[in-house]
Structures are given as C-alpha cells and as structure tokens.
Here is the input.
Amino acid sequence: MDFNGSDTIPGPRAEDQLPHTAQAAAKIVIVGGFGVGKTTMVGSVSEITPLTTEETMTQAGIGVDDNFGSASKTATTVAMDFGRISITEQLVLYLFGTPGQQRFWFLWNGLFEGALGAVVLVDTRRLEVSFDVMGRLEERGVPFVVAVNSFPDAPRYAIEELRTALDLTPDIPIMECDARRRASSRDVLMTLMRFLHSLAMTGSRV
Here is the structure.
C-alpha cells in the first residue's frame, strides 16, 4: 500500500452498509445442536453476505462429534456465523450463529453476551441435544423461541407433542420452519421479536 495518500482503504460495499434509517439494533443468537441448520438459517435470511467460519470436517472428529442424522455434512462451524437483517426501517437485528459441537461450547459465553434473545433450532431426529442448549439459555436469562427445522427424513410431530417432549412452558413459542427459505427464517425472527415485546410489556423475566 502507498502511504503517500495515493491509495485508500476500500470501505464496505454499498449493499453491506447499515441503512441510514436504522435507529436501533439488537443482538440475536441462533443456537442448537450439531447440524441442525444454524449456518443455513443465518445465510438464508441475512441481507448482507454472511460471515461464516466453516471448516472441512476431518477424520479427527470421528467419535468426538455426534453427526447422527448429518452423515452427509462435510463442513462445520468452528467459531460463529454472522449476518444482519432489517426488521423495519428503524430496527436491525445482528445474527450470531453458534457452533454446535460440545467441544466448541466454551465460545457460547461470549456470543451470548448482550444478546436480546435467541432462536433454538431443533431437529426431531435428535431432540435430546436441545436440552443442554435451552438449559444454557435459561441459566443466562436469555429469552428464546423454538424453531423445528423441517428435514425431509425427520419424523413429524404435533406442536404440543414437541412442547411436552422438550418440557417447554406454554408461553414459549414453538413453530416449524425451513431454514433454507428466507421467508420462513424471517417468520421465526418475527416470532421471537413479538415474544420479546410481550415480555417487555408484561415485565416478565425468563
């Protein structure tokens, strides 16, 4: 680089710049077990090119990472995913997707810091991995909604059956989604925002 001033550092691309109408921003985390679709959701809904930290899975992960139901998965998030979506002209959400493997859960504390709320992505083939995830959110007092990602080969259950299986209280929203579809992922985020608004209006805590 020429330090005499003839060259300049390029700024952000026009499509990545924060809308000039934005007045408020909120941090949202998207959590879940390994391979439930967190990276897919961030990528599908983000209005900017998402930041991902995916690395190719190797033989070293065999016997360490539980990839049941995700045998075809060849890459995995090792730090976080990041995206952004404007909910309204004034409100922007910053989305942080967490790594799913338990060996990377030490990163979650930093990602949870300052989070207004969370989306818990669930795979009905592996409901048991969701308990630790939701437990960590409850410990930190982070409100969350549950989104059941619709995998083609996953068993389907009624919402109330899932609520019972996941031991969710009646007030916590639970809905089906397709993390590959922008509209579906955006609906999940809108459900979370409505839930957070209702908590604020009633003064409820997690």
Notes: The chain has five helices and eight strands. The beta strands are 24-32, 54-56, 75-77, 81-86, 91-97, 117-122, 144-149, 174-177. Residues 34 and 100 are 4 Å apart (CA to CA). Helices lie at 38-45, 108-112, 129-140, 159-165, 182-202.
